[in-house]
Amino acid sequence: MIEAVIFDKDGVLMLTELIYHKAYQDALRYFGARGEYTWEEHRKRNGMRTSETFLVLRKKFGLTISLDEFIPEYRKRYTDLIMAEGLTVPEGVRELLFALKKINMPISIATGGSRKSTDLTLEKTELASEFEIVVTSDDVAKGKPDPEIFLLAAKRMGVPPHKCLVIGDSINDVLGAKAAGMKVIAITDDFYSRDPELALPDIEVNEFKEITLEMIKSI
Fold this sequence. Notes:
Blueprint: E1 4-7, H1 17-30, H2 39-45, H3 50-60, H4 67-85, H5 93-102, E2 107-110, H6 115-124, E3 134-135, H7 148-157, E4 164-168, H8 171-179, E5 183-187, E6 203-205, H9 213-218
Parallel strand pairs: 1-2, 1-4, 2-3, 4-5, 5-6
């Protein structure tokens, strides 16, 4: 029986992936990347930490810069886009959070984003007050699909991993959740990169609003 829910942030609680993609594109162009950072390429990295994504992209695009050089340029573009365009919270998010709190089910966030960007986006969407436990890439040594971030979220909630449910939108969420011994609901929309040979979620939905309290209790 599920006793706690762990949410991925980007693409689940808020629609940020297009902003992430554009920020990466702009920063890579700034540093003279050889080639185009496509949406398909971005989907493969969905859920990964920025530092790990950068190491892959630096090699792929023939860059010689360091992570310390790339991060400020990338984050500036990301922040500017958020401030200019704002963020959308998917339909059903606030309703499900309310329903979970009503039955006192512990909830947390496990995100591959940094603490700084996470605080910014939670404030921008007015979701900060909904979560007491927020685990970011700054809190772990390894990013998704490693299970460390999900296991730490479970530990901080005081709930055994096998009684936790992850709600995510990427194959890396599914892999990480399964490796942690958790159940997982995947939002398999157009942004999802499906690879059934690697892992399958327990439940697939097309949109967040399809997820209900009854669905969670049934897993």
